[in-house]
């Protein structure tokens, strides 16, 4: 039920802090240790490489998950678009573990891969919001994202929930392998939930950005580097699917290899600048587009912010920053769609779960 909300999407955006806190509770014991099935833990330890398979927004969560699995758990990880995998299969390692990320658990492209790799005898884990779903039933193991039903076609809370569960999986794998971490990722998730809540209480700001920059434009660009690039991809997908604005996400450094030719007077460029080690270079990219007429909206973070930034996020740990930096892009997309009179919850030509290949 929508309750007091006009749209499920806005309700689901607002639910995100609670969802993250809920996931922490579900996956963490009171003494701080992680609560994961012994079988999943063993499968993670035995795997010499993780192959993440997903589509759309879940693929974008997988990209962030790769960084977590590699940096926190020291597990080599590849992320693949489900619909491409069978036609362009990489050489597999000796002991692969396939991780399927799917809100619905019904995505046919992902299922096609699951059926194929199972036939070949590989181990499979599904991360899903629907534990009884096909991908969950057919995989060896399931991790539940506990986001509650997601009704809007545009995925919001399922995406942040997927990243939170991937964080827990990475932490559990790291501890089981005896690694010591120089930060507590689960505590950082709690800090991220508070930051998400603060942003959800600043909706007027995002409505204004949408009105000022996106009410009449034909196109828009999102740029970022490192994990900000993954959020740029997600921000662009969200904007295009509900507002029908042609939006693309780019790695900041790629602009000069072609895309910058599209920048005209007033072209909106939303730049994510929450990664410390690339802060100067992404700001350099912003300069490049602004000098060609772009209308830049910079989303930065406390400690890295500069005068003129449109949004300054509360400070959170870099490895989980995408959970927080995606919130402004979700809200900006929502208000852009609203201002343009689009059907926010049921965009044209799209289904909530894509059950055909
Ligand atoms: O149910 P799934 O997570 O497998 O769905 C994958 C994509 O179809 C889905 O994320 C889609 O991209 C969303 N509509 C994006 O908001």
Automatic annotation (TrEMBL):
Keyword Nucleotide-binding: no
Broad EC category: transferase
SIS domain mapped to chain residues: 40-184, 209-347
Main location group: cytoplasm
Example of a GO MF term: glutamine-fructose-6-phosphate transaminase (isomerizing) activity
Enzyme nomenclature, EC number: 2.6.1.16
Assigned keywords, A-Z: Aminotransferase, Cytoplasm, Glutamine amidotransferase, Repeat, Transferase
Residues of the active site: 352
Top-level lineage group: Bacteria
Subcellular location: Cytoplasm
Catalytic reaction(s) noted: D-fructose 6-phosphate + L-glutamine = D-glucosamine 6-phosphate + L-glutamate
Function of the protein: Catalyzes the first step in hexosamine metabolism, converting fructose-6P into glucosamine-6P using glutamine as a nitrogen source.
Subunit details: Homodimer.
Name this protein carries in UniProt: Glutamine--fructose-6-phosphate aminotransferase [isomerizing]
Gene expressing this chain: glmS
